[in-house]
Amino acid sequence: MAEPQYDRCGSCGEEVTSDSDFCPHCGVIFEAAGSVRCDAHPGRAAGGICIICRKLVCDECGVRGHGRTFCREHKGIEVQQDWARIFQSTDINDAELVRSVLQSAGYTVQVQNFDSIGFVWGGGGDSSLSRSALGKPAKIFVPIPEYLRAVKTVQEWNSGRENSDEGGLRK
Ligand SMILES: [Zn+2]
Ligand SMILES: [Zn+2]
Ligand SMILES: [Zn+2]
Fold first, then answer.
1. Which residue among 79, 86, 90, 131 sits deepest, i.e. has the most Cβ atoms within 10 Å of its Cβ?
2. How far is the centre of ligand 1, averaged over its atoms, from the C-alpha of 126 (Å)?
3. Ligand approaching nearest to the C-alpha of 45
């Protein structure tokens, strides 16, 4: 079996396999893919692909943000490198719960602002560090290709909670 060949995306500079029709990092469609049509408008050329759901989008259906293409449904998602933010909360307990739900479902997660908030919540005192951390929500990221599945996992878990007496997470 041949080793996969890699090229650099001309748009974002990330590595892509040389037989790709699009860049999964930024959503640009390569010229070699030929003419590609928007999923919602078959009469229009697609200018890119949503990096979250991989829908083909024309200029009207797509939104560029931070050098990447999103569909309108997914344009609000915060993305850092190849990670998408699935959850954020200033309540560290909620954030810890969601993290453990995702981890026990087998997802790789990255978190931000967990330690600093935990420090404050743990009675760490009134240092300038802890005060500045207070305004920052704890964030949980999953790899972009796993994002849509992970959202479902969290939703299913959350609706299970709502049906119990404990009550669900406030969105
Ligand atoms: Zn790219
Ligand atoms: Zn999308
Ligand atoms: Zn369209």
1. 86
2. 43
3. 3
